[in-house]
Each structure stands twice: as structure tokens, then as C-alpha cells.
Design a protein that fits this description.
With about 290 residues, this protein is α+β, with helices and mostly antiparallel strands. The protein contains eleven helices and four strands, in the order αααααααααβαββαβ. The chain is about 65% helix and about 10% strand.
Length: about 290
């Protein structure tokens, strides 16, 4: 009963965190579109950019003012369906909530340009866009469209794939260049590149870290790591060259977002432990990653 109650409390905390992240990310992304993207006539890539591209084209060639919300929600219907089937129901549900909330906020928030300098718009708009996506991903959600592709590929390949999606977005931007001019398209590519780099730096789930742990409590720490992280641990027995004491070295690979908690756990078990933390370029073989629900 106690375990079930604790588990339910944990699930509720996750749900509330997800909703808060979705709400904050939607506001930041909507303000960014109305303050930077519209001011610089940018096409931010992804389905957001595609929605703006369709909206501007309808206005330019047919004189029709299409609501951003209707276009964006319609375009994301198919990716959302695929997300339910191939990624996870909770993740897709939170993403759909963000898509709908962001879509209507863009229609409701007034245009409030901060600057018309195209380079400043591209750089700071890209930073805000990247931050919004990172917050959404932290809450186990996304902004939809090509983000679904990035998350799916990251789970399959076990490494970041946002630069691959940047390539897809560049095609959308070049298409926009043929219609609205290549100067706006080139600044849009800068916007998208900055956004992608922010996500790569701040979203740590897809990055791997190697830990080399030198301790006298090898058996205890090794067992605790197995249960806590579900990652494999390899044990080596040796001797310290300075004090000539018998030591155990534990070798394991964890996600970059797990390092802080794992190090805290280890230091609670052995306050004199020595840990070497190294970034891993990549891993092959079985590596447990918490599934996206």
C-alpha cells in the first residue's frame, strides 16, 4: 500500500510538471513568433515554419487571412497520430496539448516587435525557440511536427538527431526562399541553426557519460547502481599505487541527465570514493534508456 501510494504521488508530480512545462514552453514559443519571427519575416522551420509559410502564401497570392491555429493543428494531425503509434501515448498527448495551446496563443497574442534588426531577430529568436523546445522536452512533450521525428530517431539511434532534423528544416526554408526571397530564408537558417544548437547543448537525455568509480565499497555500490539506473556495471579488482590498498574500479555508462543523481547516490555509500566522469562519443550494444510513455 505504501509503495502504491508513493508511486501514485510520483506519477502526479510528473503529470503536473509536464503540464507546467507545456504551458511555459507554449507561451515562450508564441511570444517568440509574434516578437521575433514576425518582426524579421522569418520562417522558423518545422511545422511552425510550414504553417507560417502557408499562411503568408494564402495572404500573398489569394488575399485570404487563414488563422495560424487551424493550419498548424491540421498539419500536426498526421505526425500526432504517428506519435501515438510509434513514440508514446503520454508524450504525444502532452505534445498535442502544446500544439493546440501554442496555435491559439499565436492568434491571440498581439504583434510586439522588440527589434527589426534581422541578425538580432535570427539569433535571439533562435535562442528562445530552442529554450522553449528544451522546456517542452523536459516535461516529456514536444512542439510537434519535425520534433516527433527527432525524438523518434533519438530513441532508435540512441544519440542526438536534432542536426538531422535541421537538414529537413533547411529544405523548408529554401522553399520559402523561392517564394519570399532568399535573404529572409538565409536569416531563417541562422534562426534554425541557433535553435538546434541550444537544444543540443541543453537537452541532455541523448548524451552519454562514462563513470570510472574507484572505491572500497565495490560490491555495495555496484549492486545499488544496477538497481537504481538499470545500466550494466563492470567490476575490476586492483591495488592503489600510493597506499597499496586493495580497491575496486566500477565501470558504467549513464545518461548525462542521470549523472548528478548517480554521483550523489555513490557518495552517500562511500564518502571517500573517487569518480572520473568522461563524456562518451557514443555507445554500441544494449543500453537501457527509460522509455517515453
Amino acid at each position: 500500500m505504501v509503495y502504491a501510494k508513493t508511486r501514485n504521488e510520483k506519477e502526479w508530480k510528473k503529470h503536473i510538471t509536464a503540464l507546467i512545462c507545456v504551458f511555459i514552453a507554449s507561451i515562450i514559443m508564441s511570444i517568440n513568433i509574434k516578437s521575433f519571427v514576425r518582426a524579421g519575416d522569418l520562417i522558423p522551420g518545422g511545422f511552425t515554419g510550414l504553417s507560417l509559410l502557408i499562411q503568408r502564401s494564402a495572404n500573398l497570392f489569394a488575399g485570404i487571412e487563414l488563422p495560424y491555429s487551424i493550419i498548424n493543428i491540421s498539419l500536426n494531425a498526421l505526425p500526432a497520430f504517428i506519435g501515438f503509434k510509434m513514440i508514446g501515448k503520454k508524450f504525444t498527448s502532452y505534445s498535442v496539448l502544446m500544439i493546440v495551446l501554442n496555435s491559439f496563443l499565436v492568434d491571440l497574442i498581439p504583434v510586439t516587435p522588440i527589434t527589426y534588426d534581422p541578425l538580432l531577430v535570427s539569433v535571439f529568436g533562435g535562442i528562445l525557440n530552442g529554450i522553449a523546445i528544451v522546456i517542452a522536452l523536459y516535461g516529456k512533450a514536444s512542439s510537434g511536427g519535425t520534433d516527433f521525428i527527432a525524438v523518434y530517431l533519438s530513441n532508435k539511434l540512441k544519440k542526438p538527431s536534432w542536426n538531422f532534423v535541421f537538414g529537413i528544416n533547411t529544405i523548408i526554408l529554401i522553399t520559402g526562399g523561392f517564394i519570399f526571397g532568399f535573404e529572409a530564408a538565409m536569416y531563417s537558417i541562422i534562426f534554425q541553426f541557433v535553435s538546434t544548437q541550444v537544444i543540443e547543448r541543453l537537452h541532455r537525455r541523448d548524451h552519454k557519460v562514462t563513470l570510472l568509480i574507484i572505491t572500497k565499497e565495490g560490491e555495495t555500490i555496484g549492486q545499488e547502481l544496477l538497481e537504481y539506473t538499470h545500466h550494466g556495471v563492470t567490476k575490476f579488482e586492483g591495488q592503489g599505487c600510493y597506499l597499496k590498498e586493495n580497491k575496486t574500479m566500477l565501470y558504467t555508462v549513464v545518461g548525462a541527465d542521470e549523472v548528478k543523481d548517480v554521483v550523489h547516490l555513490i557518495r552517500e555509500l562511500d564518502s571517500h570514493v573517487f569518480i572520473n566522469i568522461m563524456n562518451s562519443e557514443g555507445v554500441t550494444g544494449n543500453f537501457y534508456q527509460e522509455p517515453i510513455e
